[in-house]
Amino acid sequence: MAADQLDTDSGQVRSPWEIFAVFLRLGLTSFGGPVAHLGYFREEFVGRRKWLDEAGYADLVALCQFLPGPASSQVGFSIGVLRGNGLLGGLAAWAGFTLPSALLLFAFALGAASLGGPLAQGVVHGLKLVAVAVVAQALWGMARSLTLDVPRAGIALAAIAVLLLAGGSFGQIAAIVMGAVAGLLVCRDGASQSGGHLAVPVRRCSSLIAFVLFGALFVLPPLAAAATGSQALRLFEAFYHSGALVFGGGHVVLPLLQGQVVTPGWVTPETFLAGYGAAQAVPGPLFTFAAYLGAISAPQPNGIAGATIALAAVFLPGLLLVYGTLPFWDRLRSLPQAQAAMRGANAAVVGILAAAFYNPVWVSAVQTVLDFGLALGGFLLLIVVKTPPWIVVLLLAACGAAASIAGVGV
Questions:
Q1: Which domain holds residue 375?
Q2: N or C: the chain end with fewer CB closer than 10 Å?
Q3: How buried is residue 384: exposed, middle or buried, by Cβ count under 10 Å (0-12/13-18/19+)?
Q4: Which of 148, 305, 149 is nearest to 232 (CA)?
């Protein structure tokens, strides 16, 4: 495809450095979560820079919502691929959008290890209450959009039952597979995906290599870790599998990561939820929570090495899948069977998130009537008042600190 087909404004393919700079600014200023990020991207690349038209952008969003992985990061990566005429442009876009929040959460991880005293403990507890409010908001929104009828509501309830019978990462994988199979049977009547034709500078042989890498990295690290006992491979496996199974939005990574790092004892439930609460206060993708977890993981590697492994591993499957799927999207999106399976899988992740909302989020954070009131207040600020999440983070952290210093039961 000719380079001038990539641009709607000037016919010029942008350099990786220019793409990095544009996405770095977005990474520093894009608060509000994945849906807000997609709005920022549309304003920047369709409205202001005209790097894409409306139909092309709608098609990118449809693709990234269809695939597992962090949708906003996948959209940004895809825009970089189109605008930079290949993989280097996509990596530049991903790095610019991801690094600010990853570095902020890594810095928080360094400070979290030394937290002590009533003030710091109150701040940490306030961050755990932020997690209650934010996950409740995500669950509310996802249930309203992804379980619109009786069959999908039933799939969500069945997913909860699967997790009660088989917890941890195995139960989560089983629930998603069950949801996809059920979707093929009972979710065939939904609306078809819409969007425009999307031409991309990715050869089909390159996309096939991406699919092979995706599968190899899913299967081989667990085998190699079992053979060698390498904790670095176990860390990579935990975050790669989590990133490969996230359907329905960035908040779904919470239960997946909880099963991978809290259940085996690498991270305590308290520090896990404190970091998740802190992740709401930073711009950029929620998946950078992985940098915090990798840095504080009890077994080595941790610190900067653990953060780097966890960050790369959690994003890699989503980027490989979107890069591999781009040339085939026009055909794939028209298959009713694929759309039905995705409806079922998305309904199942509502059940997975509901189970995680109870344990560990609610159980670990809400211990008193005051806790319940603060969490409810944060939820209402997010849902009713539409308060930016970072403001809710500051308010609940301050309330937690004040209550702890005053000796109130929080």
A1: 101-406
A2: N
A3: exposed
A4: 305
pTM score of the predicted model: 0.73
**Peptide bond preceding 299 in cis form (omega within 30 of 0):** no
Quote the CA–CA distance of 257 and 288 in Å, as a whole number: 12
Last residue of a domain, one of 100, 134, 151: 100
d(CA 58, CA 12): 22
Length of the chain: 410
| pLDDT tens profile 308-367 | 999 999 999 999 999 999 888 767 766 788 778 878 887 887 887 788 788 777 887 888
Cβ atoms 187, 343 nearer than 8 A: yes
- Closest Cα to residue 146, out of 168, 185, 179? 179
DSSP state of 31: -
Provide the number of structural domains found in the chain: 2
Residue 60 shares a structural domain with residue 10: yes
* Cβ-based burial of 88 (10 A; exposed 0-12, middle 13-18, buried ≥19): middle
Token pair in block for residue 333: 């999106």
